[in-house]
Amino acid sequence: MRSTKPKKAATLFAALVTACLAVLTVPADASPRAADVRSEIARHAKGEVGQGETPPGSNCNPYGPCESWCAHFATWTWRKAGIDIPNYGFTGDIYTWGKKRDRAHGTDTGMRVGDIVLYGTGPGNVDTGVVVAVSDGKITTVEGNSGDKVARHGPFDPRHAKAAGRPADIYGWVSAA
């Protein structure tokens, strides 16, 4: 009579491998939870502070073509966190993208970490930034093309952004999740 131990061991090993692979395999359409996406956006944005243009004053940057690049930087942070947004060079396109997805907000309050704030008077706006912190009604942003580099600003009251040294007041924002 033959022993069934090797067969049982092989079956157990196969079951163990299958279970491990099931845990490690992530479906292609799986998306991270909203809180994870928001923290990833902030992590990527903060990790770029100090990154400048090469050569200085050229608008050449690692986030898009050699042109004004605040929107390229903001959308880069979202793509790094897994959000499928084009590499926009025009800040108004971010608002339009958000509006089509019910993520655009025409206010200067309510934003959360990971959201993109839009400075100016409307979709033909001036500048943009990524919210990396919110505390006591104030926000901190990281912005591309701020003095020819990625820079951190704040905390400041989003209702009075221009008075806090930002390029203009906030006319709206787009939610990351």
Short description:
The chain is α+β, with helices and mostly antiparallel strands. It has helices at residues 5-24, 34-47, 70-80, 91-100, and strands at 104-105, 116-119, 127-135, 138-143, 151-156, 170-174. It has 4 helices and 6 strands.
Features:
alpha+beta; endopeptidase fold (from Nostoc punctiforme); six-stranded antiparallel beta sheet
Give a written overview of the molecule.
Helix content is 31%, strand content 18%. The chain has 177 residues and is an alpha+beta fold. It has a single domain, classed as endopeptidase fold (from Nostoc punctiforme) (Alpha-Beta Complex). Strands 1-6-2-3-4-5 form a six-stranded antiparallel β-sheet. The termini are far apart.
Give the name of the CATH superfamily.
endopeptidase domain like (from Nostoc punctiforme)
Question: Mind summarizing the main beta sheet?
Answer: 6 strands, antiparallel
Beta-strand content bin: 15-25%
CATH fold descriptor: endopeptidase fold (from Nostoc punctiforme)
Low-confidence stretches: 9-31
Q: Structural class of the helix and strand makeup? A: alpha+beta
| Top CATH class | Alpha Beta
Summarize the helix and strand pattern as letters: HHHHEEEEEE
Supply the number of structural domains: 1
- Termini distance? 63 Å
From the 3D coordinates, which CATH architecture would you assign? Alpha-Beta Complex
Shape: globular
